[in-house]
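Hello,

Our lab assistant flagged a job as stuck in the queue for most of the afternoon. It eventually completed. Since we weren't sure the result was trustworthy after the delay, we are filing this so someone can double-check. Below is the sequence as submitted and the structure that was eventually returned. Let us know if re-running is recommended.
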Amino acid sequence: YNQGSHKPHRMWSRQPTPYYDSCVMPRIRNRAKQGDTMGLTVGSLFSGIGGLDLGLEWAGFETKWFCEIEEFPQKVLKQHWPEVPIYNDVREITADTVIPVDVIAGGFPCQDISWAGIGRGIDYDLSEQEGTRSGLWWEMWRVIRDLRPRYVIAENVPALTHRGLDIVLGSLAQIGYDAEWQTISAASVGAPHIRERVFIVA
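-- returned structure --
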């Protein structure tokens, strides 16, 4: 709120982008209505409560399975996707345990990447006792390598651009994936806060 005013004030707002609003979004909405997203199916890693997956489904994709280790997010996923299987541990996902999908999507853990953390990054031995969460990128990479989806969508905090983006892109290139990335703010899509995230599409 502004001082001395009872009217809500949005510090950040989405700036109008005529091309995006008039051309891109109508195409996305029409494809979703017509079921025309090339029939892409999604396998979700580090699913949380399914925010990324909900966005993909709004665009017409179909989630085939989740992987989430925490109990509360699993309950949320079961509430909203009761027919979709949930796997507990990314380290147990193999080509033999899940059905093939067109897209592997996930926001791998950010604790060792975020500016709020100690910055160990992702390129270290997972057998170490501390700071192994963001190193789970290598499990996501292994799943991608083994399942060979057509596309990969990865999400993380903006600090990744300084603490491991080169490793992510290089490791994807090693298994044949060309990638593009963009930092997008929640304010860019209408939310009243910044909350930037890096999205990688390979």
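-- support follow-up --
The delay was a queue issue, not a problem with the job. The result is valid. DSSP finds five helices and seven strands in the chain. The first strand starts at residue 41 and ends at 45.
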